[in-house]
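Bench log. Compound arrived from synthesis this morning; before running ITC I wanted a structural hypothesis for how 0O2 sits in the protein. Inputs:
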Amino acid sequence: MTAPQTDSVAGIQQSTDTDLVAQESTDTDLVVESGSGPGTRSGARAVSRAGAYVETHAETHAEMQAESDAEKARHHEIKTELTRFMMSYKFATDEMMTKINILKEEFASIHDYSPIEHVSSRIKSPEGILNKALRKGCPLDLEDIRRQIQDIAGIRVTCSFISDTYRVLDMLTSQEDVTVLEVKDYVAAPKSNGYKSLHLIVAIPVFMSDRVEPVTVEIQIRTVAMDFWASLEHKIFYKYRGVVPANLVAELKEAADVANRLDIQMERLHNQVVALEPTVRAGDDLLSIAGLTPFALPTSLLEAIDRGRTSDATD
Ligand code: 0O2
């Protein structure tokens, strides 16, 4: 083994003996030096570099951790905001559903018939909202989304007859706390494909713990026949990704016309049957409220109220 030739240039120990090379490294990787025990100069530098390395990495790690914690905190905050946002639509839907169900029950109890056959509701998923926002070029900000996407809460009311759809529309839009933002009458003016429905966008106040939030709800009102047609057309539309073959478009249009004729005919028949109904019916001695056991209605009570009214009228 030759004696090591050492030289010191700019503090860097150089050696021709590979066993004793004190390597220099400019990167942050830890370099293990031969013959660099803590007692040697190169050893001391290695220890100090290792210490610096550990410190730098510890700092980087702490910074990354802090950044990730901050990100998690921001995401948590956004999740809370999103939850409140989505909840406001759920509450608005609940309020509108209560209103519609009150009308339904009231009609069923008093008129033996309700213009409302069926009601359903849905809340758009966050993913559905995101897709619609991107499609509409709406900024991804909750207030912009609230203003621009009006069908996050959606209710569908199906009625037996065409006149019922307008009746329900009138009953809902005349309620004091319901602000009508838009009405589209695709019943009077169907879309070119044959789609018929009444579309109503309303805002309803939702009373939260710290504020009152006006929340929009889209309500689609249509007959059972229109609904049947729309569900099938929707399926076909999505199956063909919006490019429906011409023969199917023509058949759908024809089916929409048939559904319309059926609606008109059924309503005519219904009106004929109603005209034949007796004014005094069996069960008039009972007071029936949906969901409750019928109350007996004593004739003496009816007579007493009747007497009171008659004397009021003659006073
Ligand atoms: P989806 O998948 O049902 O939610 P908007 O996009 O709502 O801001 P637009 O399209 O002018 O504005 O509103 P419009 O005409 O009132 O339609 C709203 C909804 O009515 C649609 O929602 C459909 O649910 C329904 N609709 C409208 N046209 C048709 C139709 O031709 N066929 C069927 N089957 N349904 C229809 P989305 O968001 O377009 O779709």
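What the model suggests: Residues 151, 184, 191, 193, 195, 199, 230, 233-234 surround 0O2 (CB under 6 Å). The first helix runs from residue 41 to 111.
ITC booked for Thursday regardless.
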